């Protein structure tokens, strides 16, 4: 019997908590192209690693010459293995006067009747997508106690600046 209905119901039931987690992450100005935000970029990586650890992943930061890469594992011997890739860095917010809201103060706006969106830098690219995957993991674990496959999560902090350190990292860590 499929557990999908229970997982989807869990996602619905936990929507407010999920949005709160996403908002916390969106508040971190992880602008990778500006060295003034290097500490914030690290903080965004640490935030994600901690959240993945709360789901039973072994998670940590892998240093690169630039911003760290979040690497998290939850193996399942004998099962297929999935690699999820994303990024936690965001574009600069200039020109600031074009923003209707503060870029790192997430708000939920109704853009048409019955259609709401989260407005914040990174909500669409790529923190929102990363958290969609993480929340799906969370709901699956809540309802089933396990994942059907082994999972590795790799989330970098330099996609917005060309992923310059990613190829070497992948080559050097391919066995992981």
Short description:
This protein has 176 residues and is α+β, with helices and mostly antiparallel strands. Helices cover 36% and strands 20% of the residues.
Folded structure, characterized:
The protein is of the alpha+beta class and 176 residues long. The chain has one domain (4-172): Aminopeptidase (3-Layer(aba) Sandwich), CATH 3.40.630. 36% of the residues lie in helices and 20% in strands. The strands form two sheets. A four-stranded mixed beta sheet has the order 1-2-6-3, covered by helices on one side. Helix 1 (4-13) crosses helix 4 (127-144) and helix 2 packs antiparallel against helix 4. The model has no long low-confidence stretch (mean pLDDT 97).
Describe the secondary structure blueprint for this structure.
Blueprint: H1 4-13, H2 15-26, H3 38-53, E1 58-62, E2 69-74, E3 81-87, E4 107-112, E5 115-119, H4 127-144, E6 150-156, H5 166-172
Parallel strand pairs: 3-6
Antiparallel strand pairs: 1-2, 2-6, 4-5
Helix pairs in contact: 1-4, 2-4
Alpha-beta classification: alpha+beta
Largest sheet: 4 strands, mixed
- Work out the strand percent: 15-25%
Number of domains: 1
CATH top level is Alpha Beta
In angstroms, what separates the terminal alpha carbons? 33 Å
CATH superfamily membership, which one? Answer: Zn peptidases
Q: What is the CATH topology? A: Aminopeptidase
Principal-axis shape:
flat
Mean pLDDT: 97
User: In angstroms, what is the radius of gyration?
Assistant: 17 Å
Q: Runs with pLDDT <50, length 5+?
A: none
Q: Enumerate how many helices there are, as a single number.
A: 5
Order of helices and strands: HHHEEEEEHEH
Share in helix: 25-40%
Side-by-side strand order of the widest sheet: 1-2-6-3
Shape-level CATH architecture: 3-Layer(aba) Sandwich
Number of strands: 6
């Amino acid at each position: 019997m499929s557990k999908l209905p229970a997982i989807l119901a869990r996602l619905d039931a936990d929507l407010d908590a999920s949005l709160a987690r996403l908002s916390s992450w969106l508040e971190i100005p992880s602008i990778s192209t500006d060295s003034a935000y290097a500490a914030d970029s690290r903080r965004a990586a640490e935030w994600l690693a901690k959240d993945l650890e709360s789901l039973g992943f072994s998670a940590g930061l892998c240093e690169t010459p630039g911003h760290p890469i979040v690497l998290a594992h939850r193996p399942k011997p004998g099962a297929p293995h999935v690699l999820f890739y994303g990024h936690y860095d965001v574009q600069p917010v200039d020109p600031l006067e074009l923003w209707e809201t503060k870029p790192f103060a997430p708000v939920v706006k109704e853009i048409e009747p019955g259609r709401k969106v989260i407005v914040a830098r990174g909500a669409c690219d790529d923190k929102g997508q990363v958290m969609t995957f993480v929340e799906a993991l969370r709901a699956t674990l809540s309802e089933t106690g396990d994942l059907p496959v082994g999972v590795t999560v790799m989330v970098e902090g330099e996609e917005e600046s060309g992923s310059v350190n990613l190829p070497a990292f992948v080559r050097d860590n391919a066995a992981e």
